[in-house]
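This section describes the prediction task in plain terms. A model, or a person checking by hand, is given the sequence of a single protein chain and must write out its three-dimensional structure as a string of tokens. No templates, partner chains or ligands are provided. The sample shown here is typical of the held-out split.
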Amino acid sequence: MTAEAPPFWWRQRDWRSLLLYPVSLGYGAVAQSRMDMAKPPSASLPVLCVGNLTVGGAGKTPIAIALAKTARKMGYSPGFLTRGYGGGLTHPRLADPRKDTSWHSGDEPMLLAEHAPTAVAANRMTGAGLLTGAGCDFAIMDDGFQSARLQFDFALIVVDAYRGIGNGHVIPGGPLRAPLTVQLRRANAIVTLGEGDAADQVIRRAAKAGKPLFRARTRVINPAKFARRRFLAFAGIGHPQKFFDTLKSTGAEIGATREFGDHHAYSDGDIAELAAEAEAAGLELVTTQKDAVRFVNGNSAATAFLSKLEVLKIEAEFDPADIAAQIVSETVEAFRRRQYGA
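The expected answer:
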């Protein structure tokens, strides 16, 4: 389990943010220095970075998957490049969804690997080499925007329209990984995901900086299967309430909820408690795709539990749809300029 983001990060003018402001300034200065001074190595294939501005989930993974599907339709062989947060194996490797567990690779790589070759490597340059060896000619880097450990040809920043950037402070007084101005300067475009007006601050600042602004939404796959059914809904993601709200939108009834920390590793005890609570209340069990992969290729208890679960599957859609193709094309053009100096 990871530490939860403090609730005050998402509130304006909280005294704790003000108290931590000097520390946030220091953290932001260090983050800016690292980003400005970085001289990352260059990969031999186009690199599209899908990043976010804050700590915690913003919807990068469904956006990355949508871009991979578009790249494939355009004739490319895409692959994903990720650090594999939460995975227990430290050596660079290609995720194998047939054999791996989330302990090996992390939950997000397990999801990505269902759609394209996925290199899990702290050293992004080494990971890019693994993708090239796997026959990929287009890399989508899930996160890695601030680390600057691999040169990217296009940086698309995802902002959750429901949560935005919270109070706008840098860690530890807020959720920003680096000062907003610094991050926007390195971004090529911004995409807001979902419904809400919490991203308005970023939209205004991005527009002022001349950055292209795109929109995307999430769509539940086969929502009718959840309608008029009663569930115990559980999730160990950055923002469980977003999952609960999406489930309700299908017409499902939520009889009980359980929240766990982001990237939570479910124990046999967790499994037993969830199953017992659902049975006692006469509820079915439902969770997210990201949670469900943590039970894949597990022990007998995890396998049996997974067979009882309903999984709310979603996908991201750009609005309009041709924006995804535009992003892929601009990434390839930037790569060609980088390679040939054109």
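For orientation: The mean pLDDT is 92.
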